[in-house]
UniProtKB/TrEMBL annotation:
Biased composition (Polar residues): 1-13
Region: Disordered, residue numbers: 1-27
Subcellular locations according to the entry: Cell membrane
Protein name: Probable conserved transmembrane protein
Signal peptide range in chain numbering: none
InterPro entries assigned: GT87 (IPR018584), UCP010361 (IPR016570)
Source species of the chain: Streptomyces venezuelae (strain ATCC 10712 / CBS 650.69 / DSM 40230 / JCM 4526 / NBRC 13096 / PD 04745)
Membrane topology: Multi-pass membrane protein
Gene Ontology molecular-function annotations: hexosyltransferase activity
Family (UniProt): Belongs to the glycosyltransferase 87 family.
Cellular component annotations (GO), alphabetically ordered: plasma membrane
Length: 508
């Protein structure tokens, strides 16, 4: 095994933009965005309003996000009206399944049980969600009217949750819009993302996603304490946001921003403890249920491990799947660390944040359809190119359709209805390849920063906060010896241009 590259200090500053920065208009830079704009009147013209009036980018994108969320609710109408309550197959064939109405009764909210404190019947003794999500679910139950039959109450519970999740969707879109000051219109990618509309009301992930987007915005505004608090709250709603501290450690190490990183970590730990400690002390058995459920959960839908298990016919037990996923995740983190310290320019924060969450998604033992929400805002900030984003979204929509059709096939008992195993495996492969494609594009931007669409605007790291334009303190490999690598590249270029020694030109 080759030794790790030695670390070296350098004082070379990051390039700074010259002149007055201008707001980026996607229809001026992106051919796909320009073509798509023909549906609403064409590209942004030189006489168009500048966004200083009533319809600013933030307001437009927030309204679009709410409108798309409402369309997603309409897509759930067949289930809302009858399919949730008349058997299991119809909610899959209509692709409108949601955990929310089923868990209203299944987790004791209909009977007024208190999450984590009151024991449930069945195989799961307590609510298996993190504490802040449990509180969100409980508040929605308080807003649910008590009259009517079970069907009416479950409908009301879903509506109460949908209303609260709609607020989360608007917050998400606004935060992404404001993160990159010069690229506010990139937020339209989040607002228009079909996967967001389709999956927003399947579960409660949108709460953690909105808090994570707000945390990234606070870091972009050089407010590490606020970032840490919001990230801690997000982690109290879902586990994945804590992963953002990993790439942030690498970047702060390279830039020598230890004080800011320490502030962020303390803020995250404090906020997480404020939410979790009361339940941890007063209802320890209920509090542990989320961790026990995650550890003991079998290999499930959408994961690479299910694909391997189905192809080989050998079931992978939870313990072995946990070990494999952990080892692959550690390998991915090691690769990100190498990339963070050796890239010719320090990677942007959201680039590494997207890659680490994508690695977790790809190696996890389950991929529920709504997990795509974790990646959408980070993908938009890391790689704001409409073509690449839409390619990835097409793969995710295909997987969204595939998983429900597969469930229809396995539950209906009718071989002519739904998607058989081979078709579902193809949908899993599409999801994996789509995510890997977007990861590859982000890695390419890191290795060749002149191709990064954000840095092409002349900036350094608009979501980096204190990292934006900061000097490198610790680097390795190519980043430690830029002159040597530049000379080698020039020499290789001349060799290609003029051929082998002897002065014979290699071209006609």
């Amino acid at each position: 095994m080759s030794p790790m590259p030695s670390l070296q200090k350098t004082s070379a500053p990051q390039d700074r933009p010259q002149g007055r920065p201008q707001t980026v208009i996607p229809t001026h830079r992106d051919k796909v965005a320009a073509a798509g704009s023909e549906l609403i009147g064409g590209p942004y013209g030189r006489r168009a309003a500048t966004g200083t009036g009533q319809m600013t980018p933030v307001r437009v994108i927030a309204l679009v996000a709410i409108g798309m969320f409402a369309l997603g609710m309409v897509q759930k109408l067949p289930c809302y009206n009858w399919a949730w309550f008349r058997g299991t197959t119809s909610q899959y064939t209509h692709a409108c399944y949601s955990d929310i109405p089923h868990l209203f009764s299944g987790r004791g909210f209909a009977e007024g049980l208190v999450p984590y404190f009151d024991r449930l019947g069945g195989d799961i003794p307590f609510l298996e969600y993190p504490v802040l999500t449990g509180l969100f679910m409980e508040v929605a139950s308080w807003l649910t009217p008590g009259g009517g039959d079970t069907m009416q109450r479950e409908q009301s519970y879903w509506l109460a949750n949908a209303g609260m999740l709609m607020v989360c969707a608007a917050v998400l879109a606004v935060c992404v819009t404001r993160t990159h000051r010069l690229r506010p219109w990139d937020g339209l990618l989040v607002a228009l993302a079909p996967s967001v509309a389709l999956t927003a009301t399947i579960n409660w992930d949108l709460l953690a996603v909105a808090l994570t987007a707000a945390a990234v915005l606070m870091w972009a505004r050089s407010r590490p304490l606020a970032f840490g608090i919001l990230l801690g709250l997000a982690t109290a709603a879902k586990f994945y946001p804590i992963l953002l501290l990993c790439p942030l450690l690498m970047l702060c190490w390279r830039a020598g921003k230890w004080r800011e990183y320490g502030t962020a970590v303390l803020g995250a730990a404090g906020a997480w403890l404020v939410v979790n400690l009361p339940v941890m002390l007063l209802a320890p058995e209920g509090w542990k249920q989320f961790f026990l459920f995650s550890r003991d959960r079998n290999v499930d839908f959408g994961s690479v491990w299910l694909l391997v298990s189905q192809r080989t016919g050998d079931a992978i037990p939870p313990g072995r799947a946990n070990l494999y996923a952990l080892l692959l995740m550690l390998a991915a983190v090691a690769g990100l660390a190498y990339l963070a310290f050796t890239a010719p320019r320090r990677p942007r924060f959201v680039q590494l944040a997207f890659l680490v969450v994508a690695a977790f998604v790809l190696t996890n033992k389950v991929y529920s359809p709504q997990y795509v929400l974790w990646l959408v805002p980070l993908a938009v900030l890391a790689r704001p190119r409409w073509r690449d984003f839409l390619i990835w979204q097409a793969c995710e929509v295909a997987y969204f359709t595939g998983v429900w059709m597969y469930l229809a096939f396995t539950t209906s008992g009718n071989s002519k209805q739904g998607l058989p195993v081979d078709g579902y495996q193809f949908a899993i492969v599409l999801h994996l390849l789509g995510t890997l494609y977007l990861c590859a594009m982000v890695v390419r931007d890191i290795l060749t920063p002149e191709k990064d669409p954000v840095r092409q605007d002349g900036g350094d790291d608009p979501s980096g906060g204190v990292l934006d334009g900061a000097e490198d303190r610790v680097v390795a490999g190519r980043a430690a010896h830029p002159a040597r690598h530049a000379a080698a590249a020039l020499e290789d270029g001349l060799r290609v241009e003029w051929g082998t020694p002897g002065g014979q030109a290699s071209r006609g």
